[in-house]
Amino acid sequence: MDESIPIERLLYEAESSTLDFKQEGFSLTNQPDHIKAEMLKDILAFANAWRGSDAYILLGVKEVAGGRAEIIGIGDNDLDDAQLQQFVNGKTQKKIEFSYRVVLIEDKKVGVVKIPVQERPFFSTKNFAHVQKNLVYLRSGSSTDVAGPEEIYAMGKESSQTSVVLPDVSVEFADRNKRKLIGKETAFDTVYLEVPDMRDIPDFNPRRIDDTFPGLSMMSSYSAFSPSPRESYYRELVEHYFIKLSTQQIEFAVQNKSQMPLNDLHAQLIVRVPNSEVFLSEDDPVPEVPDSHRDLISTLHVQQREFKYYSQKDIPQINVEQLDDSFHIDLYFGKVKPQETIYLNDAVYFTVIKSVALDIEIKLFADEIATPLISTLNLKINVTNKPGSLEDILELHDQGCVT
Fold first, then answer.
1. Residue 318 in contact with residue 333, Cβ under 8 Å?
2. What span, in angstroms and rounded, lies between the C-alpha atoms of 364 and 358?
3. What's the rounded mean pLDDT across residues 80-94?
4. Which pLDDT belongs to residue 403?
5. What domains can be seen in the chain, in order of their start residue?
6. Helix-strand-coil percent breakdown of the chain, rounded to 5?
7. Which pTM was predicted?
8. Which of 200, 288, 331, 402 is the most exposed place for a label (fewest CB within 10 A)?
9. For residue 24, with 0-12 CB atoms within 10 Å meaning exposed, 13-18 middle and 19 or more buried, which class applies?
10. Residue 160: how many CB atoms within 10 A of its CB?
11. How far apart are CA 117 and CA 98, in angstroms?
12. What is the mean pLDDT of residues 293-305?
């Protein structure tokens, strides 16, 4: 096996701007033109793709979603590099640098077309089956498109420069409701309530129900539907305000200022936290405001609301993983067009108990980025300590505290 071709790694990847799988081999002998044209179109599209690493077409390999691709093999195929070079470059306006070779995997032959990054654009100078002359075909993710005038201009501009052009893309703090970018630095204030131990908070035990709710005494035969005191009400109320006032929702966006589209764009944020003073979650940790009394009907309504929420929740765009001394945040943006800004619908919830300044390391990945782009976000959290006795919490609640 050619060590310069990372076959084993490629077998575990999905089709993208740098990889394509074809179950069958390819031959220039006794093949209809539309089959030959498909190979020509694929090589053109990969040669024109926005990417930062080599592209590969693997022949005799079947993609397996979420797993290692299946080796089918191409059998005794008669195609060689010289034939394919002549076929492709005999139709293009300039020579495309690529290679074709056969490697042995699991005792089966697999054809490998390797296309390095090079100056673009490329196009066919003649019509051939469904390949049209003068069109710039472009691999975008796992599909092939036709490049527009702006993309073709950007290709030519890039090729005229001696250095490699990296995409101008950045992750920033954002306000998704206002569709506003905040920048790479932000700060917010939270409150740390000095609450008593939960074991020292008494049960909620109001007056008799028929005194608290006049007229309900006549419904004694329907006691299952009558409100009953929630003994844990005080404790749940204290917990609600303690977490609510110490938690801040942080939102993110990505801005692609470059002329190239970015496929499968995602970012990994590394937040190193001191001791246990900061906790992160992709789910809102603040419990709902408890009711002082419970009854069967309101319980059923709550269950119905929760079922509706979870059944309609979108696929998460954010995932948070806690490690020994840090949190890793994965942000998924998908395909980002040139000059496009994408605001994530999800957020990260920071719960803090002590003032802290965090330098958040960002690694940006995409099909078109050979080496992850590294940057930093700066987040400052100012915490104010306030008394949080049960009386203080009840006063906050009576005032309708919302922050």
1. no
2. 19
3. 94
4. 43
5. 7-158 (3.30.950), 169-398 (2.60.40.10)
6. 25, 35, 40
7. 0.61
8. 402
9. middle
10. 8
11. 10
12. 56
